[in-house]
Amino acid sequence: MNYNVKHPQIYLIFLCVVTFFSCKQAGKPNVDDIRLDIKIERFDRDLAAGQHKKIEETDLFLRKKYNFFYDDYIHRMVGDKNYSDAEILSTLYKDQAYTDLNAEADSVFKEMKPIEQGLTQTFKYIKYYYPKVKIPRFIAFISGFSVQTPIGDGYMGIGLDMFLGKDSKFYRAIVKSVPLYLSRRFTPAYVVPRITETFAREELFPSKDESHSLLAKMVENGKVLYFMDQVLPEQTPDSLKIGYTTKQLTWCKTFEGDIWAYLIENNLLFETDGQKIQMYVSEAPFTPGLGVKNESAPKLGIWIGWQMVRKYMAENPKVTLQELMNEQDPQKILNGAKYKPKM
Question: H-helix or E-strand containing 280?
Fold first, then answer.
């Protein structure tokens, strides 16, 4: 069965925080002439309001207003095609967990203006670099932690229940499926960067599944982070862009040369074994084999790839962002970067 939603999985590789502000940023292009004013639609509130009406009436209203998103929500996020819309809505409304979670989300997200401003600013930059890009509808919802930022036919969803704040009681209850080293980043400040990263990966630069070596994965992910450098506020700390703690980022900077030497000495750049590659690009509390007492940062291959791409762009100032993102040869990036961090 095909659904409108493209990728319901939660992307947790690149998480960063955005500071909302109205002043111009040094080094950023002027986007004042780009007309854009993003508004977030509150499906979560419309759904909750329908609890006090006839199920059939609520179903008709939500389907008419939210169209493809509603179908994906009902039959992909909280239910499936084996049940009717009315059956799924009825079950949802009788679930106390839904009621409690909805109340918490409504309390945390009383209004969305700061997030709307952040999205507007970021997508103006995206439109500057990619004028033909279509801006989707932005729809807020809760799904019982099934999906964070899904993309579907003409929409991007914002799963509010996965941005409640790192100390939310709900995250302690799901720690077996979502460990605390991930849920510590489930805060409102991450909404804009999470949307940005998901949009980049799914709409602008979808993976072609041709990245077979560790180097290819490093460069591919490093380019996405560099893209985020360009469209998110310059005040955004690197630790939050990649989802590191301050301690982890400090460790990376201190041992950058040692990390690079380890990859070279162990012939890892051109490693094609999937399991070995995952050790250096996947979410984890730390990267195995590096550091003592598990003090290393996770996904060090991605962090090094990011620094490599930054160095490549610094060494090749005539290369545009679009040219960088279109480049499919990781060896060219490696050679052109002249990346040799000191130990």
Answer: helix 274-281
